[in-house]
Design goal:
Layout lengths: L8 H15 L6 E10 L11 E4 L6 E13 L4 E9 L3 H14 L21 H8 L2 H10 L1
Antiparallel strand pairs: 1-3, 2-3, 3-4
Helix pairs in contact: 1-4
């Protein structure tokens, strides 16, 4: 919904946060990044950004979307001000699988393939938080000050 929607969801989230801040006279807060895996059905061919994730309770696997949220935390309230989907790099995932298979029998590091460079299409969660949400603090600080 957020990725393929025609509306600018980030701007709507920021605007609603600004309205709440004005209404309750909130003048300070801290921006916090939070991410979580949201489990989806087993048939996820049409759901964008799903990937195989580990179920922490059972150790099994399920298909999930990882949503990275930017939250404004104040003493009175916590408000979401931005959202972005995280997708793991498929090349790095495949390399990690091969690396684990080669480590088990004791293959030396010099004989194993080198770690590939991360593709620009698949930024890390931290890179998403910094790059995608860079404009949000600027918009918020204009209202706070």
């Amino acid at each position: 919904m957020f990725y393929h929607g025609l509306k600018c969801w980030d701007y709507l989230l920021t605007a609603s946060a600004l309205i709440i801040m004005r209404r309750f006279k909130i003048t300070s807060g801290v921006l916090v990044v939070d991410d979580t895996d949201r489990g989806r059905s087993k048939n996820t061919t049409r759901i964008w950004g799903t990937h195989k994730a580990v179920l922490k309770g059972t150790g099994g696997f399920h298909h999930a979307q990882n949503i990275v949220l930017l939250m404004l935390v104040t003493p009175e309230i916590t408000i979401p001000v931005g959202a972005q989907f995280y997708r793991p790099d498929p090349v790095l995932r495949e390399w990690n699988k091969q690396e684990k298979k080669l480590i088990k029998p004791g293959v030396k590091k010099k004989d194993r393939p080198a770690k590939p460079v991360r593709q620009a299409d698949y930024p890390t969660r931290g890179e998403l938080a910094v790059s995608r949400f860079q404009a949000v603090p600027d918009r918020l600080s204009r209202i706070i000050s």
